[in-house]
């Protein structure tokens, strides 16, 4: 049953009472923090080659060259600060937590899940706890020894060297998902179920070009989830959304959460 479009006041009502909210974010939410997007309209922050343009064959052929392109992004993301949109999503998560506390008899019915395609870690730094990093993180590396494969924090003082596994000394690879690689199966399943069981799903700052992330919203819609998009530009998901706000992430969240400052 496809629901009719909704207006902003109805969207506010739904968001203010929804027990289960899922959020999908993309590079657009971090653009105001100075982190370039991938496919955005050309502008002062010229698009960067998608970080996922790298692959394991290229990496194994020349690990130092792979890290030479990755370290600058790691350092830029470490230096970036969460912006208003990141903080507003952290506040939204706290509102869901408060609703759960206010309804102890149905506490389990309340859930906030933020699925991000971003690797910058800014959602966590803004205080959001339930974050699923679908495409990995810039802040970790993974051992390339098949019998070890441990994931370890990146020590930025090592740049631009190839980080070595603290357990077995083998070269580490960036802790991100490259094009053509499988997502972490548990992360992917948790992300999908968060959308399928959500009452309201927010799709913020993503061109919705990459799957399976873009597919979660489509499937959720078929299950009756109310889809609300925030993006200055139209995307392939716009026509599926019950409301699509043609504004920045921060402006859109302020409007939806009725937050003025
Ligand atoms: N607020 C909200 N949205 C914004 C803002 C903003 N301030 N600025 C730009 N946008 C929108 C753009 O209109 C665009 O639709 O953010 C979107 C960014 O799209 P992409 O650059 O394609 O980034 P994303 O959707 O996250 O890419 C998905 O592709 O290259 C891979 O792994 C990479 O995770 C990435 C995935």
Automatic annotation (TrEMBL):
It comes from the Bacteria. InterPro entries: DHS-like_NAD/FAD-binding_dom, NAD-dep_sirtuin_deacylases, Sirtuin, Sirtuin_cat_small_dom_sf, Ssirtuin_cat_dom. GO terms for molecular function: histone deacetylase activity, NAD-dependent; hydrolase activity; metal ion binding; NAD+ binding. The active site is at residue 135. Its EC number is 2.3.1.286. It holds the Pfam family SIR2. The keyword Hydrolase applies. Residues 1-261 form the Deacetylase sirtuin-type domain. This is protein acetyllysine N-acetyltransferase. Zn(2+) binds at residues 143, 148, 165, 168. Keywords: Hydrolase, Metal-binding, NAD, Transferase, Zinc. It is an enzyme of class 2 (transferase).
């Amino acid at each position: 049953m496809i629901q009719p479009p909704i207006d902003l006041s109805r969207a506010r009502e739904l968001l203010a009472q929804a027990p289960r909210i899922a959020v999908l974010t993309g590079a657009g939410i971090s653009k105001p923090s100075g982190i370039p997007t991938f496919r955005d309209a050309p502008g002062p922050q010229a698009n960067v080659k998608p970080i996922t343009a790298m692959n394991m064959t290229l990496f194994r052929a020349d690990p130092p060259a792979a890290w030479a392109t990755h370290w600058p992004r790691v350092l830029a993301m470490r230096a970036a600060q969460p912006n208003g949109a990141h903080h507003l999503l952290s506040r939204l998560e706290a509102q869901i937590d408060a609703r759960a506390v206010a309804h102890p008899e149905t506490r389990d019915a309340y859930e906030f899940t933020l699925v991000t395609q971003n690797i910058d870690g800014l959602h966590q730094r803004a205080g959001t706890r339930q974050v699923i990093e679908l495409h990995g993180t810039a802040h970790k590396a993974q051992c390339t020894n098949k019998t070890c494969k441990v994931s370890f924090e990146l020590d930025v003082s090592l740049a631009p060297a190839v980080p070595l596994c603290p357990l077995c000394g083998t070269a580490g690879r960036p802790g991100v998902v490259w094009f053509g690689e499988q997502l972490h199966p548990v992360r992917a399943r948790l992300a999908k179920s968060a959308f399928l069981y959500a009452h309201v799903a927010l799709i913020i700052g993503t061109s919705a070009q990459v799957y399976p992330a873009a597919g979660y919203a489509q499937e959720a819609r078929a299950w009756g989830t109310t889809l609300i998009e925030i993006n200055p530009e139209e995307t392939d998901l716009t026509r599926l959304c019950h409301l699509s706000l043609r504004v920045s992430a921060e402006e859109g969240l302020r409007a939806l959460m009725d937050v003025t400052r």
